[in-house]
Specification:
binds nicotinamide-adenine-dinucleotide; 3-stranded mixed beta sheet; 359 residues; binds 2'deoxy-thymidine-5'-diphospho-alpha-D-glucose; alpha/beta; 12 helices; 7-stranded parallel beta sheet
Length: 359
Amino acid sequence: MRTYLVTGGAGFIGSNYIHYMFKKYGDEIRIINVDVLTYAGNLENLKEVEDRKNYTFIKADICDKDAIAKIFAENDIDRVVHFAAESHVDRSIRNPEVFVNTNVMGTAVMLNCAKAAWENEDGTYKEDKKFLHVSTDEVYGSLPDDETAFFYETSPIDPHSPYSASKASSDMLVKAYIDTYKFPANITNCSNNYGPYQFPEKLIPLIINNALQGKKLPVYGDGKNVRDWLYVEDHAKAIDMVQEKGKLGERYNIGGHNEKQNIEIIEIILDTLQEMLPEGDSRKELVSRDLITYVEDRKGHDRRYAIAPDKIKEEIGWYPETMFKDGIKLTIKWFFENEDWMKNVTSGDYQKYYAEMYK
Ligand code: NAD
Ligand code: DAU
């Protein structure tokens, strides 16, 4: 039975990936989820799988060499899927240091431990061992408002925020292990994800949550920054396909071919909420375009991201399957059905973060 070591599996994309993998492979695989449970890690995301015999959760920090080496020593790990990171750009602008620690140092620990466990004496590797580093399109910097410009795997690395700089650094480390040690790894650079379990510091869940309570909807700058949105389950599928069909040592961009201005996203969410809320639901009166509030711009705000997912389509056969109009309905439906999840994650520290961030 193949054993996966998933880091950051209690976060947004990691938990969706674990659900995807169990749906696809059932009892054929074993998953060990290693997560230190920061504010963004939530074991509630994994309630449905926690009793499975082929699932194990280990609370550990990826920066803790001994803890990670012990996991490799005690388990014959075949695949590493490395999600664990500090992931929010605004937080990185306020406090860069933790981003360097987790995203750079933590990745170095993961690489070293996997290499030590998998390498033979002659420098080759045990058969069928693979490491996948989950990264972001933000490492490529920003594109102009020109619809013919895209990020390709060959685009220069040009990060602007402390978050994207830390992810670019971790990508470079993985590349160095591939080039120097022939380490069996891939890097994926994905565009903005949305879907169930996303923490409401990110645009889409924040807007859904605020709109349903009649709270202001903060739009940075002129609202015309463009992001390329991908439904999270499509990302989970892409990661699995890259690991199984991709060429080792290669980088693959993953994108939704779904570029939208932030203000468009907000308007679509408001219209979809109106459409989906039943007549007589008191929240229907709260959801309104009057809530849209332009606020100070994010420092160093990247203007436009857009991925050309040509390589992954041609080499591996992956393409984004979920249209935004469908993905956003699935997402809103999930938030309607999981009000307690939202209440739990927005109590406590979130209130402090929100008050400070949007003061
Ligand atoms: P997230 O913030 O929701 O989850 C991160 C998870 O990592 C949390 O469960 C957290 O507890 C865990 N973690 C943080 N520091 C840790 C440490 N030191 N040791 C162990 N666990 C730790 O993030 P996400 O949005 O799910 O993103 C996952 C990965 O995908 C990240 O590497 C991110 O850079 C990348 N990515 C995200 C997006 C996106 O749109 N969200 C897009 C492209 C790439
Ligand atoms: O592109 C991939 C990246 O997407 C990932 O690597 C990051 O981990 C992920 O957080 C995301 O980064 P962004 O900065 O693009 O996502 P965020 O949801 O924070 O913001 C999306 C856009 O919306 C961005 O242009 C900023 C804007 N925004 C965001 C918030 C939270 C607002 O206008 N108002 C807000 O309140």
